[in-house]
Amino acid sequence: MVDDGKGKTQNRYQRIAEKIFFDRYQAGRTVLPFLRTDLESAAEELGVALPKNLGDVVYALRYRIEMPKRIRDTQTGEKEWVIQGAGRAKYEFRLVTVNRIKPNPHLLTIKIPDATPEIINAYAFSDEQALLAKVRYNRLIDLFLGLPTFSLQNHLRTTVKGVGQIEIDEIYVGIDKKGRQFVIPVQAKGGNDQLEGSKRGRICYVAGKNFQISFVGRYPPNSS
Fold first, then answer.
1. Which terminus of the chain is less hemmed in, N or C, by CB atoms within 10 Å?
2. Mean pLDDT of 105-123
3. How far is the C-alpha of 224 from the C-alpha of 192, rounded, in Å?
C-alpha cells in the first residue's frame, strides 16, 4: 500500500484505478474509456498482484471503496467519477451527478415483526443474501408498493449492448386490484456496499426488455 497524500493508505485496487485514470485524463473530459486488459497492464507496471476475478477490481470501486483522492480532486461541483460498463470487457470512468441511494433518517420508520425463519439467518452466505431473504419473508415489497408481489427469479444475468453484463439480484412480479401486472427489479447491498443511482435505468431497461414491457425513462443506459 502507498500513501495517498493525506496520511491514508491506498489499496492495490485504488492504485490500479488511479494509474488507468491519469493515463487518459485531460481537463474537461467527462468520459475516459478503458479495457479489461488495462487492469492487467496497470497492475504489471505497478508491480501489484491482481485477484483471480478481475471484475472484483471494478466492483469494489463501484460499491465498496472510495475512488483515490487524486481522482476525487478532479471532480467539480455536484459531480463524481464512477466506473460504468461500456460493452463486453469494456468500461469507462464517467463524470456524473452525485446520486447515491441512502436511507433518509428523517422518514418515519414502519416497524413490522421479523418473519424471517431463524434457520435462514443462520445459513445465509452473505449480507446481501440475508437482506434479500428478509425482504422476501417479510413481504417488504408488498408493503412498500401496496400490491401483492411474488419472487420470480434470483440473480438474473444478461448482456446489454453498449454496457456489458448486468445482474439483477431478484425479480418480482405483481398484480393490482385492476389486473395490471408489474415487473419489479430489486437490487440489494449489504455491509458497507452502496447502491449506485445511475444503475437504476439500466436494470429497469433490462427488466423491460426481458419481459416485453415498455421502459419509460432516460436511456441509453450510460446516461447520468
1. N
2. 89
3. 23
| Residue 18, Cβ density class (10 Å: 0-12 exposed, 13-18 middle, ≥19 buried) | buried
76 phi-psi bin (left φ>0, alpha ψ -120 to 50, beta other) = beta
Q: How far is it, in rounded angstroms, from Cα 223 to Cα 213?
A: 20
* Cβ proximity of 35 and 3 under 8 Å: no
Strand runs labelled E in the chain: 2-3, 9-10, 31-35, 79-87, 90-97, 100-101, 149-160, 164-175, 181-186, 195-196
| Residue 110 cell numbers, joined | 414502519
Using an 8 Å Cβ cutoff, are 68 and 10 in contact? yes
Q: Express each pLDDT in 201-223 by its tens digit.
A: 677 777 777 776 544 444 444 44
Nearest to 92 by CA among 29, 157, 14: 29
Q: Quick one: how far is CA 70 from the chain centroid?
A: 22
The pTM (predicted TM-score) of the whole model is 0.64
- Which residues are within 8 A (CB) of 52 and not within 5 positions of it... i.e. 6 or more apart? none
Cis? peptide before 221, omega within 30° of 0: no
C-alpha span between 200 and 217 (Å, rounded):
10
Cβ proximity of 51 and 57 under 8 Å: yes
The two beta strands, 100-101 and 195-196, are antiparallel
Task: Give me 180's grid cell.
Answer: 395490471
Backbone angles phi, psi at 98, to 5 degrees: -55, 125
Domain ranges of the chain: 2-98, 118-210
